[in-house]
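re the bet — no i am not wrong, look at it urself. input seq straight from the record:
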Amino acid sequence: QNFTIMLNDQIEVQSVSLVDLQGKIIMDLTNLVVAGNQKVEVNASNLASGVYVVSVLSAEGVGIQKIVIQ
């Protein structure tokens, strides 16, 4: 199962991570962010079913989005 993270191209992204509900970083996705590209494709086939949080850190602050892997 794959999913796409859409980023605002008007902000400078410092880091992107996938975190479980206990706060443990499951995947550091920062290396998938390419300047000028708003999409980050994530391969979630190795993840257990459950709820995760995508955390995006920028100079403007932190954005989070809950995702569910089935």
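see?? DSSP finds no helices and six strands in the chain. told u. also The longest strand covers residues 50-58. so pay up
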